[in-house]
Amino acid sequence: MAAVGALVVAFLAVVAPAVPAQAAVPAAESGGRCSYEDHPEGEIHIKGCLRDERDDPPSPVEGVAVTVEDESGTVIGEDTSDANGIFDIPLEGDPLKILGQTFVVKIDESTLPDGSGLRDPDKVEVTIRFTTTGDQSVIFPIGDPLAGSSGKLVQALQLTVGGLVFSSLLAMAALGLSMIFGTTGLTNFAHGELITFGAIVAFAIDRLPGQISIGGANITVIVGVIGAFIVSAAFGWLNDAALWRPLRKRGTGVIAMMIVSIGLSLFLRNLYQYFAGAQSQNYSQYSAVTPWEIGPLLITPKEVAVFLIAMAVLLGTTALLQYTRLGKATRAVADNPALSSATGINVERVISIVWIGGAALAGLAGALLGLTQGFDYQIGFKLLLLVFAAVVLGGLGTIWGAIVGAFIIGLFTELTTLFVPAEFKFVGALLLLIVVLLIRPQGLLGRAQRVG
Predict the structure, then answer these.
(1) What is the pLDDT at residue 249?
(2) Which of 67, 169, 275, 306 would be 78's cystine partner, CB 3.0–4.6 Å?
(3) Cα separation of 70 and 25, whole Å?
């Protein structure tokens, strides 16, 4: 896993300049940049930055009215873009009570300057569902209308971008679970808590007093993500050394160990809630990054960075498993532990390394997932069903199967929101899993085996 860790550090170093820290700069002093004023802790704001994309560089659009409505259609806030094109609308009430609520942000086209218009004329409102207690940014691109772009096509492309980012993180978590299952036969229901552990470690480093800087650049969150990867690896070793290895030596069956993993999951989840709290959390940096506009698509540097890191780690891990002596030993243990031991392979050492690697992958996935959408103490538990679905769909115990299954599940989950409410998007992924397994029980890349 040292090679994988080096890849994480290298890619973080490469993409860090593309993900600048969001320093709180008062709008009046921002010189036209998309920077927002500070607001008291405990408040949630919906904000945005209006720019006329026809100018080079894009120029602020002042005097545009924006309103926010609740689910009943009642206007609960309004603002007019200032000289820097910024609007900032606070939401009243306890942030925890806002979680799960939906708001509609509308722009008044009649207040746009003469000769200006929305690039997507149909996008006069944006629906936001709060899944975290952090501020939400809304974008209304202004300029010449996008020729020949249909609403559904643009939405599908935008969802595909988000789906690829989510799928890459799901693939890391699924690969870790598949590695552990392949070498030990354990269906680990506490794997979701390994994901949450990584998010909490990164958050803890992020909240340390002061900030970590190199050359004036704040890299606190980057250090937090690297720290999550390393500490999660140590936590995986501790899991195996303190619990699973003694159980294996006692000859405990896989069913009993699976039940133990359920108990461990409940214990860790309550422990996380005690120390991290029940509310959603966000890292201090990169919460409102200005996106890049590529044609009709809006892509943030943060999404690009997370996707590249995840893909580098996935490729590094698969290369390690395919081409190194350790990887060959791991595959031998997964195929036949008794025969591997007879040929001189230290089976317990291989299993310990797999636990270290699997936990490190899960922890890194959790830290990056928290970076993209925030997190709470149940983030891994909520993701666990999709992780299992990805592993089973791709084929239990296969390296590439977990990755392929994760990308199918992740993309399908995001794209189905074109046709069904977002609350039901996981249902479609699980229905897809059922259909595939009815046709091919061993999964897409698994080997058919006779049982009994």
Answers:
(1) 93
(2) 67
(3) 29
Sheet arrangement for strand 86-91: 86-91, 44-49, 136-138
| Residue 23: pLDDT over 70 | no
**What is the per-residue pLDDT across 346-379, written as a single tens digit (0 to 9) for each?**
999 999 999 999 999 999 999 999 888 888 899 9
| Residue pLDDT, tens place only, 85-132 | 899 999 888 777 787 788 889 998 888 887 778 877 767 888 887 766
Question: How far apart are the C-alpha atoms of 374 and 368, rounded to whole Å?
Answer: 9
Q: How far is Cα 35 from Cα 37, in angstroms, rounded to an integer?
A: 7
User: Measured on CA atoms in the order 352, 353, 355, 356, is the torsion positive or negative?
Assistant: positive
- Pick from 79, 34, 86: nearest CA to 62: 86
**b vs e for 201-237, b when ≥16 Cβ sit within 10 Å of the residue's Cβ?**
bbbebbeeeeeeeeeeebbbbbbbbbbbbbbbbebbb
Give domain limits for the chain: 31-147, 158-439
Q: Exposed/middle/buried for 330, CB within 10 Å: 0-12, 13-18, 19+?
A: buried
Q: What is the pLDDT of residue 167?
A: 95
Q: Which residues contact 363 (CB under 8 A, 6 or more apart)?
A: 194, 195, 197, 198, 201, 228, 229, 231, 232, 233, 235, 236
- 3-class DSSP state for residue 129? strand
Residue 342 has pLDDT above 70, yes or no: yes
Query: Encoding tokens for residue 3?
Result: 């090679």
Complete DSSP assignment for 17-49: GGS-------GGGSTTSS------TT-EEEEEE
d(CA 145, CA 141): 10
Of 132, 126, 120, the C-alpha closest to 105 is 126
Q: Which residue has the tokens 């897409």?
A: 444
Q: Which fold has domain 158-439?
A: ABC transporter involved in vitamin B12 uptake, BtuC (1.10.3470)
Cα–Cα distance measured from residue 79 to residue 107, given in angstroms and rounded to the nearest whole number: 10
* CATH code of the domain occupying 31-147: 2.60.40.10
Residues 70, 72, 75, 80, Cα dihedral to 10°: 50
Radius of gyration of the chain (CA): 24
